[in-house]
Write a structure and sequence with these properties.
alpha/beta; 5-stranded parallel beta sheet
Length: 196
């Protein structure tokens, strides 16, 4: 009954990934180099987002701290989306907009990376986290879609913007996941050498 609809989802996703490969390979490569520089200098990655993007932040941190596909030393990454006591305290005592910014100011140091994920580029708490990261002399790797939204103005020249060329949230998230896997694979290749 739903076979044709399912088929269309797969085709649309594959088409976008093929198109995005041409556009995003350079900023993804730049992001891999930035991550490698940070990690080899003893720095860490802080990741944040909302909803599906929060899940992506956690997915990324899990693959850095645990492993991606090959055994390797643990890599320092922390999803700012997981501590419900911190999130609810900040949300209640300050505002939901500050749930990531306060964590970035508490945990971020110069040379660290903020991985800021928002499909629209307009999430207020992610934008506040970017401002907090800049106040700590951190580099931001921004993952967006829909033209980048307000994140375009929030990023600095030293930051990296990976903007999926699409307007549909589900398709953007699918490319974000592939992008995160590219980041993990690239860092692993730099650490362990390339494989076939």
């Amino acid at each position: 009954m739903f076979e044709q609809r399912i088929h269309q989802h797969f085709i649309a996703s594959a088409d976008l990934k093929y198109q995005a490969a041409e556009i995003l390979s350079t900023p993804i490569s730049q992001a891999i180099e930035a991550l490698w520089t940070a990690l080899t200098n003893g720095c860490k990655v802080l990741a944040c987002g909302n909803g599906g993007s929060a899940a992506d932040a956690q997915h990324f941190a899990a693959e850095f701290v645990g492993r991606y596909e090959r055994e390797r030393p643990e890599l320092a990454a922390l999803a700012l989306t997981t501590d419900t006591s911190i999130i609810t305290a900040i949300g209640n005592d300050y505002s939901f907009e500050q749930i990531y910014a306060k964590q970035v100011r508490a945990l971020g140091q110069a040379g660290d990376i903020l991985l800021a994920i928002t499909t629209s580029g307009n999430s207020a708490n992610v934008l506040a986290a970017i401002a907090a990261a800049h106040s700590r002399d951190m580099i931001v790797i921004g993952l967006t879609g829909k033209g980048g939204g307000k994140m375009n103005a929030a990023l600095q020249e030293t930051d990296i913007h990976i903007c999926v060329p699409h307007d549909r949230t589900a398709r953007i998230q699918e490319v974000h996941l592939l992008t995160l896997h590219c980041l993990c694979d690239g860092v692993d290749a730099m650490l362990l050498g390339e494989t076939e």
